[in-house]
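Structure (tokenized):
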């Protein structure tokens, strides 16, 4: 609503009396016309004042929504910044753990090489176990039976014990199996005595056990570092997803902020236009009834100063705007 539209409405709402032949209105018709015009102006003043109050209320409501959206957006952005820090920390942890995995794998590989070397030394201490093949007629080769070792004897003894417990050997066969188990036990004891007397063989066996223990430790460390790296990676992905979610919420709050600010600005613009219309109506009413003196004149000067600032494009405080509206 602007002044031109207001005056157009006022002109349309007043029925002007017909003039006399000399071009002047009769005195009584002039009084009636001015009275009707004052009534129209007063009604318009009340309407514009009501609109101004409505626009001010609407503006304040949108401003409150703007503050709320701003608070939510800022809080979400702060959470996003914290999450980004956490994501970076987890990425660093993951990279550190991956580096440790590479180091531990190298250590495990070295331990595996040590196990192989210890086994070769043990085999050398035992002497050759795989005899060369014998030549037979027709050029065919026949391999001699590999000498028994403690591990092979234990494996056979374990198999026979399981079969015996399952009842797979009965009658005469039971006697044979029991005799075979006793023979195997005797061979194992004999080989143990021989190994105990062989210092090189004993040392080689101890070296194998030590190398295998180090290999197992290295393997466990690789597994632990790999698990820690995977956990950091999964946590980093989880917090990355949370960053995206929080950013989307912050963007939604920001869009709400822009909408509410736009609506508040629009309502404020209408509020200012309403105040200007009020000022124009009040000017016409004062001109019709004559300017007062004393306090009224002082109030008039104060209102005029505020309206001058407003019309020149200066910003008025909320208190000044409310004072301007109440004075009008």
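Design, position by position:
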């Amino acid at each position: 609503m602007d002044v031109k539209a207001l005056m157009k409405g006022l002109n349309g709402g007043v029925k002007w009396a017909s003039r006399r032949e000399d071009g002047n209105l009769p005195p009584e018709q002039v009084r009636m016309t001015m009275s009707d015009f004052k009534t129209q102006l007063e009604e318009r003043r009340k309407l514009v004042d009501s609109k101004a109050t409505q626009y001010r209320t609407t503006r304040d409501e949108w401003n409150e929504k703007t503050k709320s959206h701003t608070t939510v957006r800022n809080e979400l952005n702060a959470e996003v910044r914290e999450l980004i820090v956490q994501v970076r920390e987890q990425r660093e942890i993951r990279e550190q753990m991956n580096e440790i995995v590479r180091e531990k794998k190298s250590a495990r590989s070295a331990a595996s090489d040590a196990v192989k070397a210890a086994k070769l030394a043990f085999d050398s201490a035992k002497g050759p176990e795989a005899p060369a093949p014998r030549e037979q007629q027709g050029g065919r080769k026949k391999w001699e039976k590999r000498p028994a070792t403690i591990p092979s004897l234990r494996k056979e003894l374990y198999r026979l014990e399981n079969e015996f417990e399952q009842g797979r050997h009965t009658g005469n066969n039971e006697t044979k199996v029991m005799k075979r188990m006793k023979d195997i036990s005797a061979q194992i004891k004999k080989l143990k005595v021989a190994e105990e007397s062989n210092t090189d063989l004993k040392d080689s066996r101890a070296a194998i056990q030590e190398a295998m223990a180090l290999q197992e430790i290295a393997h466990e460390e690789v597994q632990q570092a790999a698990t820690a790296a995977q956990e950091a990676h999964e946590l980093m992905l989880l917090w990355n997803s949370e960053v995206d979610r929080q950013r989307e919420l912050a963007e939604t709050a920001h869009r709400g902020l822009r909408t509410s600010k736009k609506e508040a600005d629009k309502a404020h613009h209408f509020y200012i236009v309403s105040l200007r219309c009020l000022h124009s109506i009040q000017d016409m009413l004062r001109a019709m009834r004559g300017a007062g003196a004393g306090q009224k004149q002082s109030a008039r000067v104060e209102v005029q100063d505020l309206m001058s600032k407003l019309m020149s494009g200066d910003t008025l405080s909320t208190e000044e705007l409310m004072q301007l509206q109440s004075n009008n």
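Reviewer-requested clarification: The chain is about 85% helix and 0% strand. The longest strand covers residues 134-135.
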